[in-house]
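Notebook B, p. 112. Complex prediction, attempt 2.
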Amino acid sequence: MSVVTSYARALAVREGRAQPVATVRHLHLAADPLVFIPLRLAGEAAAPLGAMVGSHPARPHLLVVPQPRNRDLRFAFMAELARIMLPYIEGRAAATETVPGKNERERYLDAPQVIVPGRGAVEFVRLLGRSTRFRSADGPYPVDPAVPVLGQWLTFLYERTEFAGSSALVPMTEALSLHWATGQSPMEDANLATLLAWICPPPGHTGQEAAAAAEDPVRWPPAGPDTDPGFDARVLRPAIDAYDASGSPEPVREALRGQLEPTWRLMWQAVELLRGRPEAASVGDRWAADRDRYTREVARVAEGGPPRGRRDQAGSAAARLWDMESARQSYDAQRAYDDPLVMAEHRATGKAFAGEVVHVDRERTILLPGGKKPVSRPLVTVRTADPVRLAPGKKVFSAHRRRQSGEVIELDGDLVVVQLNDQLAKGAGVPGVGDAVCFTELDLGGRIRPGFPAAEETPWTHGGPPAAYVPTDEDAKEDWS
Amino acid sequence: MTVAPFPDPLGPAPAGPWPEDGPAEAAARATAAILADFTGGAHRGVIVDSPPGAGKSTLVVATTLELAGAGERLMIVAQTNEQVDDLADKIATRDPSLTIGRLHKDGFQVPERVIRHPGVRASKKIDDVASCSVVLATADKWAYVSGHTWQWAIIDEAYQMRSDKLLAIAALFERALFVGDPGQLDPFSVVDTERWAGLAWDPLQSAVAVTARLNDLPVHRLPVSWRLPASAAPLVSEAFYPFTPFRSGTGPGERVLELAGPGSPVTGTPAAWDRALEEAAATGWALHELPSRHTIRTDADAVRACAGLATRLVERGAVAHDEHGSHRVNAARIAIGAAHNDQVAAIRAAGVPDGVTVDTANRLQGREYDVTIVLHPLSGRRDATAFHLESGRLCVLTSRHRHACVVVARAGIPELLDAHPSTGRVRLNEPVKFPDGWEANQAVLAHLAAHRVPG
């Protein structure tokens, strides 16, 4: 936990309510996000029990599996879920824009955004995708043709969460924790009800009191995917027994409605809370990356592309890791550049410093090694009160002029001398005496990915080319699906 | 507590190679066997495990000269620019007639010690240097090279190279010699994912781990550490290389650290600092033990002790006697190592003599000093996380010295370890890693207990 977050947590305890740790919203929020609250049967890896889903707070769809041990009913549930989710997801593919540049392409102006309560639900989305994308509409154990398509999209949504800064599938508790620090532990922050109790306690109550009240699973049932054991034993089991005896799903339906509705209200309350914050400057760029991937996936699914493999080949794993690291690096840097409160964390640890320009040597030129003509390399002296831990020679970037890089030349007490290396055309990029500036080692990245071999060109070091995947009927017979 | 050695999962360990030999003969024999195996052509790859200071660079240089002498072209891959420059300098010094290409990224300034050699050609473009007998670059730079191939490649520090980096360059060569130290820190990533856990080609694993698992490659081992003194090699070997023992190149008494007079201690310097230095000079090890307490990471007392020990060592004007003669242990021959960047910054801020290296374990990898002062990664902690238990971290910190190592720690680490037995997640189809960090930590502490100086 960083210094600023630790301080904000201590402050939250003293003030009795959560404290902001961001001044802007660091994720995209669609006008009509799809809220999805899945529940599963206790003790099963991927047996759906029910879900509440919809993109309008007043119109939730309630789906249940009255006997979750019955696989036919599970896949009937998935088919029903597909009829709600697929129109939402595929419906984003409407108007496009042309992205200019070397790799000119079309891109949809919109993309799906699904919001789930927390990390547990994200993992459940992965499992639902895994258990449905290899199914088939014919052959043994056929399923509704929409089920494998939904499986492909759930897999797509889950895989986007592996890239930092994606807003395609958002776990709400983590989105809130990105913007507020509470007086409870990070583990307790995974409980949507207590987290929201800290952020907006009812009038006359402190965050502590509100969170303690929100821990009651009867008033605020768990946000899933796991249900409360007391509910399982006292309510759910008799309701499932009643279904087995009578064939009527109503008791299970009513039981799950009671479990899901409180979370449904909390989810939309949280959406409105986030909507109240201004969007950070880089969110648009990151959402564009989500839209890019969505555009490609729409084309892939439309062409009848095979479901994503169970495991990555050597080349695709390496390329994916490169992209994940690159996304993480630019996400961390962008958040700091967009938000002074996030930058404060880096200033406290010495990875950035802010201050006032006290001297500028605008005319300085140096001869680069091997160069013939002197080039302009202005020096800027900054007075800062921050604990600077950037050694001379360290490459730094200006937080105010993005992508302008420089180099720390000298540190002397509270003075730091920085040499500016680029964006100097006609002296435009040089700050004046008295300007507030901020320099940091955080790099926005954006380097070109090196080439990794395609599967059929896998070199001997990595085991040579693997056998190609051929779908078989065995895919439908996995023990656990 | 004492720790019983864990049974070898691979069966009984082979005895040390040719124990009747002297260290020089054993090392020469190992090098000859490696060269024969690599150039013999029976395998596409050969792996060489090298304990700390066992002559890894010497092997790389010898192999390079042998291949280049036979008229072969080869490429050399290292992990950092500093490593590449060191190798280029050494090769050019040994054979000034070789043409050596130093490939580097745009904007990189190749240091004087490399470009002073007339045979070295430095460039950011592969086409400028591809015709050289030997081309050296970092793995990151090689990843962007295409259109050229080599029959031979030497991959240095291959245990610190991630397998995805190897994948990006594997099309460039036919055969490869993988050289590295398996006991040092594993490569890491800023992303935390289990997506590839258990896959043979997991990109987060080291290049050697992946290639060795997918190919049946011969594994050689350099048997003698020329860096570590006789007081350190047995402990480091037992704690961090339990199934591949090695020995020191020098015997007991061949390395002597002599502390000249008491110097002029600044008033208020704790006598314990001098006692710790004297214990280290006499035995090769000292544990400067501060009273047990839970502290923040930048524990003010421990930080002050690290900086103070280095200052006193310089003040007392130590002299080191070894197989090459005698020399003064000046500030450049002393290093202070810690686990975290903020600890390094705090120690630097506490005031260390000019020229003393202060750095994290990651940055100290591959470097060598006469005396090292180590802030124990678990000192003052309430918990023992996987990061702090990683055996490679402690191995790097306790194997950088030629003469003596002083460990600074809060009392109570054995109890902390007992309270936090290793609970790393077991994943299907993932080879078990040895040594276990928890066990290695216990072994080092058990040894240090005999060199305790309360502070």
